[in-house]
Amino acid sequence: MPKDYTVGKTSVFWDVVDFPVPEGRGIREIVESALRRKGYKGEVSITVYGDKDPFSPEETAKGRFTFVERIKKYWRLNKMLVDIGWWSMETPEPHYNPANVVVVAKNIKEDTEFVYFLSDLNGSNFNVLLVVPDDCEPEELPLPTVNLAWYWKSFVQGGEPMPRTELKALKARGKPRLVL
To answer: Can you provide one Gene Ontology molecular function annotated for this UniProt record (predicted)?
Structure first.
């Protein structure tokens, strides 16, 4: 019986230097709008990475976000990888409890530890979702490990992810990867 990931918890890991929050919009509003449109209704947690805290004191006081300060891209991506690892270890039995991970970051190239880790998560019954730049090239996407992908503009507008046919075509254009 296929798992219903739409009822599972979703954790979002967002690099706000790569994808700044549009003025007048809220991170939670953007995330929940896109997820709800696809029928996701589980609890959502959001961790944000950047060079300065994008939240107002009111948002911070509500405790609805976690902010991680890292100035350089290398350290933001590595910290995100570690945080996703901790999150996955704290997620109880993904075989029985649907869990989703959303990564909102640029420059996740193939043949990196980050891509291999996303692949391992996918193989361990986590649902891997990704947000990519509007002008993203297939070789820049860890597509074999992704179940849904949004272009940035569509994600921000609460729109649909890439159609399955487009996602499949992008996967076909990208370099084949050896997954062990």
So the answer is: RNA nuclease activity
Mean pLDDT of 52-76: 78
Distance CA 77, CA 105 (A): 8
> For 162, phi and psi rounded to 5 degrees?
-55, 140
How much is the CA Rg of the chain, to the nearest whole Å? 15
Full-model pTM: 0.86
The predicted model gives 74-99 an average pLDDT of: 87
In Å, how far are 3, 43, 140, 172 from 115, measured between CA atoms?
A: 23, 25, 10, 17
Q: Please report where in the chains the tokens 């890991």 appear, as a residue.
A: 13
Expressed as residue numbers, the domain containing 140 is 5-173
**178 lies in some domain:** no
- CATH code assigned at 151: 3.40.50
Q: Where are the beta strands (DSSP E) in the chain?
A: 9-15, 44-50, 66-69, 99-104, 126-132, 148-151
pLDDT higher than 90, residue 2: no
64-68-70 Cα angle (round to 5): 155
Least confident of 9-13, 56-60, 117-121: 56-60
Please report whether residue 179 resides in a domain.
no
Mean pLDDT of the chain: 82
- Tell me the CA end-to-end span of the chain in Å, nearest whole number: 25
Q: Say how many domains are in the chain.
A: 1
